[in-house]
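task queued by scheduler; priority normal; single chain, no ligands, no partner chains; default sampling; output format set to structure tokens
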Amino acid sequence: MTFKPTSYKLMNCADGRIFEDSGWTLADPQSKTPSLVRAVYEKKEFGIRTDLDGFYKFADWLPIKKTLSHSCAPVTYKSKGLADLLKLDNLYITFSGYNPEIGAFMHTCSFKETEAYSVCARLPEDEDRVLVVASAGNTARAFAKVCSDNGIRLLLSIPEDNIHALWFDKPLNDCVRIIAAPKGSDYFDAIALGDKVCTSEMFLAEGGAKNIARRDGMGTTILSAVEKIGRIPDAYFQAIGSGTGTIAVWENNLRLIADGRFGTHKMRLYPSQNAPFTIMYDSWKASSRELLPLTPEDARHQAAVIKAKVLSNRKPPYSLAGGVFDALTDAGGDIYMISNDEIDFWKEKFLNLEGVDIYSAAAVAVASLDKAVRDGSVKKDEIIMLNITGGGEKLAKSHKQVVYALPNLVLDPSMPAGEVIAKVEKLF
């Protein structure tokens, strides 16, 4: 079957201007202020594509030109164990990871697969540039798997300290290459390295939160929940590094309201960060649209201390129009701060109560739900969505052989762009 590309236009979140997507538009060229752009889909009703497999059952609200092989969708189920402990009547867990018992088969064990299968399917068929993705770990693993499986050229830029996150069930295809910022670097250093590479016409910046395909891919988590529950939840919990996932579910919430069949309310948003890396928590609590100052030295130290390493983005899409600040202001909610000790506690609790191991970032979300129950932010009879953004790694590794990828190059982010490009181009 030939896939018909999804029909949509773009909207500037700052001023509402509607315009055409040139193919890989990441921002409105006419915008006077920093702003995300949002996809406005021709199909206004939420529906499941029964003719498409896996993740692509949500294709009507994905800005894609094709479908790719081996995708899986998030799985939503009603919790019993955790719900009983927290005394919640309607707790729904949206699980993105590996747990065959509930039908979850994301082999990288992370909801970052939803980003990768959407972004890579947005690429034009005739695109010959190399896609560049910067990541602190899980995103790199997801993009590497999707590109390797589908023969898409990819350059990953990661902090060398996070190389342990690049594990797979088989060696990567040669179309995937990896560069790393040296030990002691953080996610922002990896971004800076990738940005230098993208000054070459040989490479194409993926775009991060600015890429509508990344956000709408992540937004399939709420679509999974609504498919299961039959209505928009009242409250939403997720750990955040960039906050892109929280922006994404807010945007799909607005689309669901426009549909009208699943409720007309905005679910309150409760993102959470791992202390001491709490730049968005600190800024939100200060009622500041602008991010509070954070020096590179402090950011690297905080990133080294936290257990949920993937939650260490020091330049998140918080302040710009359509970003985290606007999402929380519009929908209501709050940001929580979770300690390393709380992560350890809730990882063990979740495993015992729900039967599968989860990542530290997911445990941050569980801990924040516990805090919200304790402080009265959520009521026992409300419909609550808990986004478990990654889990099942121990289970997955017990089911298969595991191989680890190594960087092809380790490069200092302070190196001149010309030198970086000269070295990286030789990889392809």
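post-processing summary
- Residues 346 and 363 are 6 Å apart (CA to CA).
- The domain at 75-108+214-396 is CATH 3.40.50.1100 (Rossmann fold).
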